[in-house]
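Page 42, continued from yesterday. The earlier attempt failed because a stray header line got pasted into the input along with the sequence. Redoing it now with the clean sequence only.
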Amino acid sequence: MGMSKAKRQMPGRPGRAGQAHGEARREAASDEAGGPPHEHPGTGSARPKAGTGGPLEAALTRQNLQAAWKRVKANKGAAGVDGLDIEQTAQAMRTSWPQTRQALLAGTYRPQPVRRVMLPKPDGSQRELGIPTVLDRLIQQALLQVLQPLIDATFSEHSHGFRPGRRAHDAVKAARAYVQSGKRVVVDVDLAKFFDRVNHDILIDRLGKRIDDAGVIRLVRAYLNAGIMDGGVVVERHLGTPQGGPLSPLLANVLLDEVDKALEARGYSFARYADDCNVYVGSLKAGQRVMALLRTQYAGLKLQINEAKSAVGSALGRKFLGYALWVAKGREVRCAVAHKAQANFKARIRQLTRRSGGRSLEQVVQRLRPYLLGWKAYFGLAQTPKVWRELDEWLRHRLRAIQLEHWKRPRTMYRELKALGAGETVARRVAGNSRRWWRNSDGLLKTVLTIAYFDRLGVPRLS
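This time it went through. Structure tokens are written below.
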């Protein structure tokens, strides 16, 4: 099948922030990865048709594969362990695809190991990402487009992560409504390295209860078992789902739906986004009962709770998907950007503007724009204009300091400031304080590099 087009896989964390959805770029759904969780814009509508032989054959139809290829190509992900990028994979598939398709249908196809990549987080730590080859991303995406419509309808209404037509904002709005109704205590359970510790046998068992197709089950098992290429050596994988593959979030929802159903059966109010789940109750005592229930449920799935990050306590001020809740006048519960998300924002801006290496301020701004626009859109529910103003002021302060650093010499500063319309006194005083970039950029320089100046450069305003 000569293919030249593609579709997508999954989102960032959440979305862990201005990165492209899915494909070798996805991070776990949490603001801790340096940005907000990514939204999931639908995963295709390919459905097994009568006489096609089931989900696997439906996934491998020309029409479904072309849609999958569009998504994979749109994500512009990196090459896997085979070193083939998207165009090189397309070339190779022109001759190899018939054999690959036959192996998939026969159950003899074996995915390549995933390439281990460590992504830096704003706090200095790292997050592991497993990048499948472009071919394996294509196959996973094609399978996702068939499985998602079959399985999604069976999921809980309280699950919002990586589902068509749903996003993190829905989970945050649900949380706000619960707290507004008087449920001021939250049970916040953090799972320790969820995507790394999923038990394969339990996951395959739960998937088998929803999909009656041995070929699909065998292929999913093969993807779960695909090793990790680390320093040229293949390390076997006995636990976890490779984050970076299109199927990973759907499989997470399959596993965690069991916990959703247990909470639903008892009438609890909760919101879940991937492995991030908050349950809202009216008292600490009720919260302790829910915590005990969740411990039992997660133990049954062989998942480990991160005790340091889990708690039963006030729902006000506690972080959920980068947001925190607070009470305004009139007892209205509102959303704010959590303190950690604000710190992550500043850390990411510092990363993007560090070692600007001779780039002009215009180039620095163009590099910042996608992240700023994505961050602003994700935190659009926040009702704290003062925070937006403070972050805007901090950002402009940093950009002014970068501009002074670019000019470096007093003579250059004087000349450039005069060219921008600065008065003689302002130009001389700023140039005379040339080496103190940060302090200097918060004084007289504001009268030259104004808010309107940054608007003309294309710096998005948060406020």
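Notes: Confidence is low (pLDDT under 50) at residues 1-35, 39-52.
Reminder to self: strip header lines before submitting.
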